[in-house]
């Protein structure tokens, strides 16, 4: 059990507009890393869109930790292939993941629809355990990116 809480602050709060923080049992607070794939405008919630999709993806990646990293490129989103000269490998985009992570689009889009789109615009709290419980209930129905491209 990981004792983390994810907290989203709505636009009316003094913490800022659409800020998502990670809090641990010691009181340490840090911003949730934004693993942008759908837009650079940041997180949002309470509806289905690009900001909520990035929030869903980022929450799942954070909750899974290193197990979300692609085992082919080790999170770099690039792999080395033999180039024209064998002693000079060329970096190419990894085809086994989305920007270094194997969280499938089907999985985080379902999480967006089930959880993120239903969060109140004014703010919310989700525990790490709630995210992991949702994943354990739904992951068996959905493949990772690795499975989809194999």
Polypeptide structure, described:
- The chain contains four helices and six strands; from the N terminus they run E-E-E-H-E-E-H-E-H-H.
- The protein has 150 residues and is an alpha+beta fold.
- It has one domain.
- Strands 3-2-1-6 form a four-stranded antiparallel sheet.
- Strand 4 and strand 5 form a beta hairpin.
- Helix 1 packs across helix 2 and helix 1 crosses helix 3.
- It is elongated, with a radius of gyration of 17 Å.
- The protein starts with a strand and ends with a helix.
List the defining traits of the structure above.
150 residues; alpha+beta; four-stranded antiparallel beta sheet; two-stranded antiparallel ribbon; 6 strands
- Low-confidence parts lasting 5 or more residues at pLDDT below 50? 145-150
Q: How many domain units? A: 1
Radius of gyration, rounded? 17 Å
Looking across the biggest beta sheet, what order are the strands in? 3-2-1-6
Mean pLDDT: 82
> What distance separates the N and C termini?
32 Å
Shape: elongated
Query: What can be said about the biggest beta sheet?
Result: 4 strands, antiparallel
Count the strands?
6
Amount of helix: 25-40%
Percent of residues in β-strands? 15-25%
Q: What is the helix/strand order? A: EEEHEEHEHH
Which structural class best describes the helix and strand composition? alpha+beta
Output the number of helix runs: 4
InterPro entries: DUF6166 (IPR046164), Multihaem_cyt_sf (IPR036280)
């Amino acid at each position: 059990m990981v004792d983390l809480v994810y907290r989203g602050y709505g636009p009316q709060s003094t913490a800022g507009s659409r800020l998502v923080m990670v809090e641990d049992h010691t009181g340490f607070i840090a911003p949730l890393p934004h693993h942008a794939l759908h837009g650079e405008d940041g997180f949002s919630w309470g509806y289905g869109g690009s900001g909520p999709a990035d929030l869903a993806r980022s929450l799942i990646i954070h909750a899974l930790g290193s197990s979300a990293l692609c085992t082919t490129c080790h999170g770099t989103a690039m792999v080395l292939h033999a180039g024209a000269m064998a002693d000079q490998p060329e970096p190419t985009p990894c085809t086994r993941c989305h920007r270094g992570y194997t969280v499938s689009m089907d999985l985080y889009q379902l999480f967006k629809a089930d959880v993120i789109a239903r969060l109140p615009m004014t703010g919310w709290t989700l525990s790490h355990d709630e995210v992991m419980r949702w994943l354990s209930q739904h992951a068996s129905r959905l493949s990772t990116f690795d499975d989809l491209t194999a």
